[in-house]
Specification:
Belongs to the multi antimicrobial extrusion (MATE) (TC 2.A.66.1) family. The protein is an all-alpha fold and about 400 residues long. Helices cover about 80% and strands about 0% of the residues.
Length: about 400
């Protein structure tokens, strides 16, 4: 839900409406903390919920106890993600990296101290996680209030409680869009568990999803970069610059994806071995090399297109696309090929890649067919509606800029 700020803060920053960034962040804090309260019953009643879904009693009891310990982290999430997007929109990336690095070092030390030295077990692990996440939150907030974001943070404001309904709708759209993507990979494990020789199938799918996830973390950086750039350029009224940014980032990420694709094909016989001692699992993963390498190539482009969508504010549109591609095409096809046609893990993965490929094609078509001048006008309208008005620096047909005037209401 915090990713809604990628659209709003980025466009406001591009339009030089810096004062609205802090207001947007506070609105997101209100909405996300209300959502944390809504989610609390899942944490509090985790044990009976898990038992209802058939989890073993000892695991359900332990997981339920741990979930109670982790409630402070839930509220840290509610504050952290808006802070991240607030800083990200201003390209304060190194500040975020320093805070996260310090928190990580502290987390490692605290985990060793509480779990290994004091032998506190799960309570120690929970305390380490909670404290580390709150260090991230407090560190980022300290950076903001100490004056390193001039103009963007002007203190707490009652304006944070205005337009919460429209803000919540965009936040929910962002959440749906992203959750549908992440849950898609989780459902693959469920499908694998229904195959013959399920333990081997789950192990093979898990190795591939882990490797894919590691690569995906790299392209999350491209996702954030293009999201910020698109929102900044649209907010500033520079549609031509937005289109050029898309071209540069897509080409750059695709080149990196081709490198990963080539690595998997070159190491197809051995790339599973660091993850398993089972020859059967390694053979299945090796057999997936060609289609898995294609997955890595798609992983390089798809996050960029999603970032474009977030920067432009297309969250609801992409949510619908994800439902169709992933849950109407990808998962049913994976189930049909894997279970009914006895193609096993390869069938499940082919279904998954088909959904991802279809989504990438549709998002590519949407991006190519977009009227970016119209998107820039919509960004201006959104900024005016939610806090101010601005006459941005519009581009003329020959690429020259007209005089820029800022009018803050």
């Amino acid at each position: 839900m915090g990713s809604a700020l990628e659209t709003l803060c980025g466009q406001a920053y591009g339009a030089k409406q810096l004062h609205m960034l802090g207001v947007y962040m506070q609105r997101s804090w209100v909405i996300l903390n209300v959502m944390c309260i809504v989610l609390l019953p899942i944490y509090i009643f985790a044990t009976p919920i898990l038992k209802f879904f058939g989890q073993k009693e000892d695991i359900a009891e332990l997981a339920g106890k741990f979930s109670l310990y982790m409630i402070p982290q839930l509220f840290a999430y509610g504050l952290n993600f808006p802070l991240q997007k607030f800083l990200q929109a201003q390209s304060k990336v190194m500040a975020m990296a320093w805070v996260s690095g310090i928190a990580l070092l502290f987390h490692i030390f605290l985990s060793w101290l509480l779990i290994v030295q004091f032998k506190l077990g799960l309570p120690g692990a929970a305390a380490s996680l909670n404290i580390s996440w709150w260090i991230v939150v407090l560190g980022q907030f300290a950076y903001v209030v100490m004056g390193y974001c001039p103009g963007a943070w002007t203190g707490f404001s009652w304006s944070a409680f205005r337009d919460l309904g429209a803000f919540a709708r965009l936040s929910i759209a962002s959440a749906i869009m992203l959750c549908l993507e992440f849950w898609y990979l989780m459902f693959l494990i469920v499908l694998a568990g229904r195959l013959k020789n399920a333990e081997v199938a789950v192990a093979a799918i898990s190795i591939c999803t882990n490797l894919s996830g590691w690569e995906f973390m790299i392209f999350l950086g491209f996702n954030a970069a293009i999201s910020v750039r698109i929102s900044n350029e649209l907010g500033a009224g520079r549609p031509r610059a937005a289109k050029f940014s898309i071209l540069v980032v897509v080409m750059s990420s695709a080149l990196v994806g081709i490198v990963f694709m080539a690595l998997v094909l070159a190491l197809r016989k051995v790339y599973a071995l660091p993850f398993t001692n089972s020859r059967d699992v390694a053979d299945i993963v090796s057999d997936l090399a060609v289609i898995f390498s294609f997955t890595l190539l798609l992983n390089s482009v798809q996050p960029v297109l999603t970032g474009v969508a977030v920067g432009a504010g297309w969250q609801w549109l992409v949510a619908y696309v994800n439902v169709g591609c992933y849950y109407i095409v990808g998962l049913p096809l994976g189930f049909l090929l894997g279970s009914k046609l006895n193609m096993g893990v390869k069938g499940v993965w082919i279904g998954m890649v088909s959904g991802m490929g279809l989504q990438t094609l549709i998002l590519t078509g949407i991006t190519l067919g977009t009227n970016w001048n119209k998107e820039a006008m919509m960004a201006k309208s959104r900024i005016t509606k939610w806090g101010g008005s601005v006459e941005p620096q519009w581009e003329t047909q020959n690429g020259n800029s007209s005089k820029k005037r800022d009018v803050v209401v």
